[in-house]
Inverse folding.
């Protein structure tokens, strides 16, 4: 799976069987609970409410949903999103086997965090829709999508980096994107840091400059709104040709 989060803590890796990141999402292997049972859990209710708010009001998500629909991959809330309990080091993931986005209900506690996770994972879903991504066997493919997700989802906005006490570096946005892409790979693949860094560095320029479907790096919600408006206008223009 592709994931949004940090690398797992040391000492968990080499002796465990490589499960392609599924160990971080234990609910993936459990029998689905009934809606009545799930509705009794506060985490699940909160997750569903924040997801709905994100899909209806967050311009990052709105643009990505429109782009996926245009590409023939319409996203349905009840089919393509799942609120589940996860390992403490991740906030969400994209399960390419089911084309489903997992939202970690036990780790997402604020609407702003939900907005970033939904946008991040929708970029993975968009990449899965438009390209033949080999998520499991080609670490460069994973690296490219993680670079794009960190670059375009709002993960590396100035305000988010200040909240992480990281600011003042030259080319800071690129540094943040690179670091977060590497961390995401290490969270879901049992590869060395050297392997993750090499994969990211080899594809960084091409993937960092692939700005679809935004057409720009949306550094803020205002940027994302403008990108969404431009996307809709471009779609209408193309429809009239």
């Amino acid at each position: 799976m592709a994931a949004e989060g940090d690398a797992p803590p040391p000492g968990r890796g080499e002796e465990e069987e490589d499960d392609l990141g599924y160990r971080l999402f234990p609910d993936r292997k459990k029998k689905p609970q009934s809606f009545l049972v799930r509705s009794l859990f506060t985490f699940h209710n909160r997750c569903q409410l924040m997801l709905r708010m994100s899909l209806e009001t967050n311009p990052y998500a709105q643009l990505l949903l429109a782009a996926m629909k245009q590409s023939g991959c319409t996203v349905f809330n009840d089919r393509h999103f799942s609120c589940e309990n996860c390992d403490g080091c991740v906030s969400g993931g994209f399960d390419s086997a089911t084309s489903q986005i997992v939202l970690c209900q036990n780790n997402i506690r604020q609407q702003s965090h939900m907005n970033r996770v939904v946008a991040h994972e929708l970029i993975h879903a968009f990449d899965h829709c438009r390209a033949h991504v080999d998520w499991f066997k080609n670490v460069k493919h994973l690296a490219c999508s993680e670079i794009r997700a960190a670059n375009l989802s709002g993960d590396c906005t100035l305000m988010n980096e200040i909240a992480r006490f990281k600011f003042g570096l030259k080319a800071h946005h690129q540094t943040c994107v690179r670091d977060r892409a590497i961390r995401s790979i290490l969270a879901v693949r049992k590869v060395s840091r050297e392997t993750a860094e090499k994969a990211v560095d080899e594809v960084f320029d091409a993937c960092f400059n692939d700005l679809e479907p935004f057409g720009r790096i949306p550094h803020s919600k205002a940027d994302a709104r403008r990108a969404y408006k431009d996307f809709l206008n471009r779609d209408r223009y193309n429809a009239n040709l």
The longest helix spans residues 111-130. The radius of gyration is 17 Å.
